[in-house]
Amino acid sequence: MLTDSFQRPVTYLRVSVTDRCDLRCVYCMAEDMTFLPKAEILSLEELEALCAAFVAAGVRKLRITGGEPLVRRGAIGLIGRLGGLLGHGLDELTLTTNGTQLARHAEALASAGVRRVNVSLDTLDAARFTRLTRWGRLDRVLDGVYAARQAGLAVKINTVALAGENEDEFDAMLEWCGREGFDLCLIETMPMGEIGEAGRMTQYLPLSLVRARLARRWTLDVSEYRTGGPARYVTVRETGRRLGFITPLTHNFCEDCNRVRLTVTGTLFMCLGQEDAADLRGPLRRGEDVRAAIDEAISRKPRGHDFVVGRRGLEGKVGRFMSVTGG
Ligand code: SAM
Ligand code: SF4
After folding, report:
1. Ligand 2 pocket, 66 CB below 6 A?
2. How confident is the model at residue 30 (pLDDT cuts 50, 70, 90)?
3. What CATH number is associated with residue 204?
4. Is the pLDDT of residue 321 over 70?
């Protein structure tokens, strides 16, 4: 069992299998991103070996993310092999995706043992979707979402709340999710990566405000449901579906954080909102004891992030993009 110095068990690993993406969501990436050279990134076999080492150390849940995980060639094969760990230490294998390639891969994901997928979707308006992602097509994502449902996967829609962008749509999205049988999770925008700070602050929308607005129309029953993540849930009485809130800025949830994040370069981030990290690629490639490197890293897991809405805007910023650490 991996336990940090604050006695928090670390049972959840999020693995970014690529820093690349076929979209450029305005809050996540700059338009002219420079991606990692091939030599820097772990092979699929190396990623698999590190995941297996974490599962052997006590990790029970893996989430595959990115960048966009499904744009990496061979990602489905990797997910299939990781599925082999289910029942052998691993309880759950999940995926976070932008959904653009999901129509093609939903069946294979289900066969690999994936039961739930998170699909990021910030709007149901086609023109707005294209603007927010800089060039994406909404219909492809919707095809992906429906294919996932068809394949038997439970779908959660992740929506970043953006002031002046999609804040007029949350009622409609809740209604759509209710009709289609999806849960919805709203996320506060976090100060990660250089996208121009003026933009970041004007995008910030506190979910406390969103929740109060939604409560005018919907009956939100507080739910004890937890997925082991930072989301706090209510059940929407009118639809029977769950609505989650991820509020890194208005409510800090670090005290029971159970997760760490592995990037595609084999760098382990012990906190999304801190710069401290451990290199696992070096020990892996040198044939050293990876477990010892993991233990040492976990012992350094910080108490929490420092994101805060301060007088000068969003503070506690980290320089790397969310797409590097893997959301
Ligand atoms: N490409 C996949 C996707 O979009 O789902 C997986 C990676 S993406 C980085 C994971 C999640 O992070 C997405 O739901 C995205 O909306 C969210 N995200 C990216 N940048 C963010 C930011 N600055 N603040 C809050 N959430 C962010
Ligand atoms: Fe790509 Fe996901 Fe970032 Fe959007 S949020 S740019 S889909 S990695």
Report:
1. yes
2. confident
3. 3.20.20.70
4. no
In a domain, 78, yes or no: yes
- Pick the closest to residue 312 from 194, 185, 200 (CA basis): 200
Q: How far apart are CA 166 and CA 182, in angstroms?
A: 19
Q: Reduced to 3 states, what is the DSSP secondary structure of residue 212?
A: helix
Q: Distance from the CA of 214 to the center of ligand 2, in angstroms? A: 26
Query: Could you give the count of Cα atoms lying within 13 Å of 265 in the half-sphere of its Cβ?
Result: 16
- Residue having the nearest C-alpha atom to atom 7 of ligand 2: 98
Domain that holds residue 86: 12-325
Q: Residue 57: its pLDDT value, please? A: 97
Is the Cβ atom of 193 under 6 angstroms away from ligand 2?
no
67 lines ligand 2 (CB under 6 A): yes
Q: What letter represents residue 154's amino acid?
A: A
- 120 phi and psi, to 5 degrees? -85, 125
In this structure, of 48-57, 231-240, 301-310, the range with the lowest mean pLDDT score is 301-310
Extract the tokens encoding 185.
């999770």
Whether 236 has a pLDDT exceeding 70, the answer reads yes
pTM, entire model: 0.93
What tens digit of pLDDT does each residue of 32-78 get?
889 999 989 999 999 999 999 999 999 999 999 999 999 999 999 99
- Both tokens assigned to 64: 């595959």
Is the CB of residue 98 below 6 angstroms from any atom belonging to ligand 1? yes
d(CA 13, CA 84): 16
Q: Is 62 within 8 Å of 51 (Cβ atoms)?
A: yes
What's the whole-number mean pLDDT along residues 84-101?
98
What domain count does the chain have? 1
In a domain, 240, yes or no: yes
Residue 59 Cβ < 6 Å to ligand 1: no
Is 247 part of any domain?
Answer: yes
Q: Which ligand 2 atom sits closest to the C-alpha of 96?
A: 2
Q: What are the strands of the beta sheet with 154-161, ordered from one edge?
A: 220-222, 232-236, 242-246, 183-188, 154-161, 116-120, 92-97, 61-65, 12-16, 259-262, 267-269, 277-279
Q: Is 5 domain-assigned?
A: no
